[in-house]
Amino acid sequence: MITKQPASSLPTKTPKCRYDASASKSSSKTTLLEIYFANALPPVGLSSLVESLLDSRVYSHYQSLPDPTDKVLATYIWIGGSGEDLRSKTKVLTDFKDKVELKDLPVWNYDGSSTKQAPGRDSEVYLNPVRIFKDPFRRGKNILVLCEACLPDGKLTPIPTNTRRHCVDVMNRAKSNKPWFGIEQEYTLFHLDDANRPLGWPKNGYPGQQGPYYCSVGAENAFGRRIVESHLKACLYAGVTMSGCNGEVMPGQWEYQVGPCEGILSGDHLWVSRYIMQRVCEDFGVRVTFDPKPIPGDWNGAGCHTNFSTLQMREENGYTEIKNAIKRLEAKHDEHISVYGEGNERRLTGKHETAPITKFSAGVANRGASIRIPRTTAFEKKGYFEDRRPASNMDPYKVTAKLVQTAVLDE
Ligand code: ADP
Ligand code: MN
Ligand code: MN
Ligand code: MN
Fold first, then answer.
1. Closest ligand 1 atom, residue 386 Cα
2. Ligand 2 centroid distance, CA of 259 (Å)
3. What is the pLDDT of residues 85-97, one digit of tens each?
């Protein structure tokens, strides 16, 4: 399964690579580990000895074993107790010959005491499957299953951290308005073995100041593109509605956009896109964070600009409705900020293309405003607007529900 050079054909001087364990040793005896390292391709992004031992060529042997024809591997995904952490576990579904549908998927459970979602003495939380995606990791007919976390009360009552159920209710009430969302998810990549060092940053100190990195190309500007590309492909394969991706202003920071998605689909697709991002980063041995201000000081934070429109806004003279919606948003600024993400006050400072957290503002093409009206919308007198306030770690179920409650339902 694996072809490795025999020890005798090794060059007398072991080639140096980042993971060369023999480099600092004087012993002339070649160990198995040294043979291993001499033959290993430098694993991209893998940062510690332990992880690089999980050789991708060994792994690919097992991965290439054929899938059983009558089984589907379903990865049940849910949101944990912090409201930001994603969890998952696999269920082997038997006797499935064709495509799996939601009605085929059993309710499952997990230990809520390990995710800060239930007490130890009554720890079961139920997983209620709500949306199926193709599994870009296992491929074949295997699936990712987004789930709601529910009480084991026989009625699937949502647990307190299940914010989706409220969002579904709001979206149902606004169905005829056809609310669309396009969410710009920003995120920052960090070296796994250096908690304070974004990808591409020097070991000690700072990179050159912001300017060349936004939408950049070139090895000296763009750090982590393999993750970006892998994530985009994996999301498209899975069936996530992606509309693009780009490098961001701070080096090591990137963005992708999910949407436009209607109603509850927006939150569902964004959460699954985050799950896929974490899995891709895990494969590359890189840490991804959705913290809104991962590096303090004169560096851009990370947001989740939420572009929004209703049917009325998209039709002739929709601009009137857009302006009315913005007025309603102004009146509820503080309420919105309270559900727009933890730590957002570190990001919404009034600098770095943000408006101050305490002050609502709106403007055409203004990236220093709370709400930006795209120039095309102002010109065509219809379209959408962009709420620039949500932080990168926001819960899209809370944000999309709040937008619809304020801007559409006026409640
Ligand atoms: P920016 O110029 O702020 O960087 P992006 O191109 O990153 O904007 O993101 C714009 C987002 O708006 C995309 O996700 C896109 O799908 C979404 N979008 C486009 N039209 C609409 C619309 N009518 N309603 C809601 N979202 C929309
Ligand atoms: Mn953008
Ligand atoms: Mn951006
Ligand atoms: Mn934007």
1. 3
2. 12
3. 999 999 999 988 7
